[in-house]
Design goal:
single chain; Cytochrome p450; 5-stranded mixed β-sheet; two-stranded antiparallel sheet; 20 helices; monooxygenase
Length: 516
């Protein structure tokens, strides 16, 4: 039967009618989004009102946070910009409290469907959208991140640091310029392997990155792209079917990454959980705490898929963020010798019998070094590892944020890298100044509210203390042990966004044994 035959029988009319109605509905939706939606009153390029393509392209080009920053610059004085048909980014302290805070109003803001793309073999603390399940998971593992637990993790940090420092001693003996950030990445990868899987990856010993580190980055990029799709929990499956080489490459990396985590965790279960540490103490790493974790209210424990998801999440949260933070601290301290001298003086006063950092520095003392901690916080303010907004969904009834009405079920958030340089919060925000965090005349409460280096509210990074522990130990030891200089004193580092915001170029430092 030909086309004319179909038309002549009248069968084509329902099809044509359906197509016409679909086109009319789509056009009506576009017109609504462009001119009549409450979101149309929020500044932003007209294209972002109807399409998420600009944000997806910015992500692909490794400039997503920069793109959002340009939108705020394009509309000076605004507290919010439209980044997509159903997404808004805010840049004001009140938005942090409204969206991420603990108050009754903030309780209605649940995690958006973007997080579904990060649920791999199960829901992790990071990816679960259910507030009830998150609260249960947090109850189960909270003791694993207590100060007592941190001290039990310290021997693993010390052993891994010793391997790292032996490499640094070699560079110091020859004063050969080298890329210290490269070695920071090897260190954090081995350390998180110890804490999450019970074994290091041999990165420091081999002196080269392991395949796993690249898989982590590519997998996270795939999840970010998936999260931008409008199909919720089906985003990953739909994106995995897109036959573009770039997409398929990211998806295959995700599969390999998950398989690697499965094998490593299976080995962790097979190994003796009571391996002896220095001091003959039973092994108590983070994963062991997760294995033993039990909800005090329900008695529930994590199954293997959940543990696998948590281990994968730990690798991202710990390895990538810790290494880049130590990188920025090294760079800024080298560019600001007066601050570095003051930090070293505090260290010498605290450790008069260990002036060359030859023995491990206990974290129990290091956490009282206010200037070194302010140095870390200031680096995280200017260069948070995750710069873009962690999205939350407005309550079904909508919400008023910073005086702007946002309809229900819209993704809203505050980009850490944007508010971290808000001139209304931080004086001279593009200048690195750790003393701002110790200035009694400053509005420290607003500054701390606007600091999103570790997130904010009940969903902030539970591993914050672990990351702070090894960053402080590493930087304190390096400053006591070596004189650190940039090979190029005039170096100016910028940023480039992968999943993590990293330096935009490689650079070298020169180490030499510090003279007392």
């Amino acid at each position: 039967m030909g086309v004319m035959d179909i038309v002549s029988t009248g069968r084509a009319f329902p099809v044509i009618s359906f197509v016409c109605l679909s086109l009319l509905s789509y056009c009506a939706l576009l017109i609504y989004r462009l001119f009549f939606s409450p979101l149309s009153k929020i500044p932003g390029p007209w294209i972002t009102r109807i399409s998420a393509v600009p944000e997806a392209n910015a992500l692909k080009d490794k400039r997503r946070t920069e793109w959002v920053g340009q939108l705020f610059a394009q509309y000076p004085g605004t507290v919010a910009v439209r980044t997509g048909p159903n997404s808004v980014s805010f840049n004001h302290p009140d938005a942090v409290k409204a969206i991420y805070g603990h108050g009754r109003g903030a309780e209605g803001f649940g995690k958006s469907s973007w997080y579904d793309a990060f649920s791999t073999t199960g829901e992790s603390l990071f990816s679960t959208r259910s507030k009830k399940r998150h609260a249960m998971k947090r109850r189960m593992v909270a003791h694993g991140f207590s100060m007592q637990s941190l001290y039990s993790f310290e021997p693993y940090m010390d052993v891994t640091m010793e391997k790292f420092l032996s490499k640094m001693d070699e560079f110091a003996s020859t004063q050969q310029p080298f890329d210290i950030y490269f070695w920071f990445e090897l260190f954090t990868m081995d350390l998180m392997g110890e804490l999450a899987f019970g074994q290091n990856f041999g990165a420091l010993q081999g002196g080269k990155p392991v395949r796993y580190s690249k898989l982590v980055e590519l997998s996270q990029r795939f999840a970010n792209l998936s999260g931008m799709l409008p199909f919720g929990k089906y985003n990953v499956k739909i994106l995995s079917c897109v036959p573009l080489p770039y997409i398929q490459g990211l998806y295959q990396a995700r599969l390999e990454y998950l398989d690697y985590a499965r094998k490593a965790l299976e080995k962790r279960f097979q190994d003796n959980r009571q391996q002896a540490l220095p001091g003959s103490k039973p092994r108590q790493d983070i994963m062991q705490r997760f294995i033993e974790a039990q909800d005090p209210e329900t008695g529930a424990r994590m199954d293997f898929p959940e543990l696998r998801a948590e281990a994968s999440s730990l690798m991202v949260a710990g390895a990538s963020t810790g290494s880049v933070t130590m990188n920025w601290m090294t760079y800024y301290l080298s560019k600001n010798p007066s601050v570095k001298t003051r930090v070293i003086q505090q260290l010498e006063d605290m450790f008069p019998d260990n002036l060359n950092g030859s023995t491990p520095l206990p974290f129990s003392k290091l956490q009282h070094l206010s200037l070194l901690e302010s140095t870390e916080v200031e680096c995280l303010r200017m260069h948070p590892p995750i710069g873009y907004a962690m999205p939350r969904m407005t309550p079904p009834s909508g919400a008023v944020i910073c005086g702007l009405y946002v309809p229900g079920n819209v993704d809203v958030g505050v980009p850490a890298a944007i508010i971290g340089r808000n001139s209304g919060v931080y004086h001279d925000p593009n200048t690195w100044d750790p003393d701002r965090w110790m200035d009694e005349k400053a509005d420290l409460s607003t500054m701390k509210l606007s600091f999103l280096g570790f997130g904010y509210g009940s969903r902030q990074c539970i591993g914050r203390n672990v990351a702070n522990q090894f960053v402080m130990k590493m930087m304190a030891t390096l400053l006591l042990r070596y004189d650190i200089q940039l090979e190029d004193p005039g170096l100016t580092l910028g940023s480039k966004e992968f999943t993590i915001i990293k330096p935009d170029k490689n650079y070298n430092v020169i180490l030499s044994p510090r003279k007392h």
